[in-house]
Amino acid sequence: MTAALSRAGWNVLSDDISIIRGADEARIEPCTTGICVWTDTQSALGLEAERCETMAGYDGKVRYLGTSPAPALGASLAACVTLERDPLIGSPALERLGSSDGIKSIIQQLILFNPNGLPDERLPPIEAAVATVSEVPFFRLRYPSGFAALAEAEILLRQLLGG
Fold first, then answer.
1. CB of 27 within 8 A of CB of 57?
2. 10 Å Cβ neighbour count for 132?
3. What is the pLDDT of residue 42?
4. Max intra-chain CA distance, the chain
5. What is the pLDDT of residues 90-119, one digit of tens each?
6. Closest CA to 134 of 102, 111, 96, 104
7. Per residue in 7-28, is it b (16+ CB within 10 Å) or e — as a string?
8. Pairing mode, if any, of strands 138-143 and 80-85?
9. Which of 37, 38, 132, 141 sees the fewest Cβ atoms within 10 Å?
10. Burial zone of 138 (CB within 10 Å; 0-12 exposed, 13-18 middle, 19+ buried)
11. What pLDDT is recorded for position 135?
12. What is the pTM of this model?
């Protein structure tokens, strides 16, 4: 999804991890560069070979450098959107989540990213998640497997962001 959005001209901050900071206003900063895709995805999306780098240690995976400049560091956070591939649905769906579901979604991602993390290591990110979800709207974008629905998912995101 992030590679398709980047290919379509979106400024993608990260396809993996971003840092949310700020006591008064949520601001976001990237932690990773490029978008990691398998070579079949590179081919299916028509990602230019000169914009892709082979990833060491990953047979058949490349880092797509995108086509648009990255957003400025410390950009304001307007909304949180989690992506969820769902092979059981026919078309993309964007739903607004309440605070508790938004926090639950963030916590699930924190645990998946660091399943062996100690409770003391997890508390600050969870506290930040609670603060963030109270400041900005939280959404889940569910989309079917395959590439056919990517254009429809992009339309939903453009509508959400007013573009």
1. no
2. 20
3. 93
4. 44
5. 999 999 998 888 878 877 777 766 667 676
6. 102
7. bbebebbbbeeeebeeeeebeb
8. parallel
9. 38
10. buried
11. 77
12. 0.72
DSSP-derived pairing of the beta strands 52-54 and 61-64: antiparallel
The CA distance from 159 to 163, in Å, is 6
Which residue is it, tokens 């400024």?
11
Q: Whose structure tokens read 């993390």? A: 117
Q: How far apart are the C-alpha atoms of 13 and 71, rounded to whole Å?
A: 6
Instruction: Write down the residue that tokens 């976001």 correspond to.
Output: 28
pLDDT at 26: 66
Query: What is the SS3 assignment for 15?
Result: coil
Q: In the prediction, which pLDDT does 122 show?
A: 67
The tokens for 131 are: 């603060």
Distance CA 142, CA 120 (A): 32
Kind plus residue range of the DSSP H or E element containing 95:
strand 93-97
Decide if pLDDT at 120 tops 90.
no
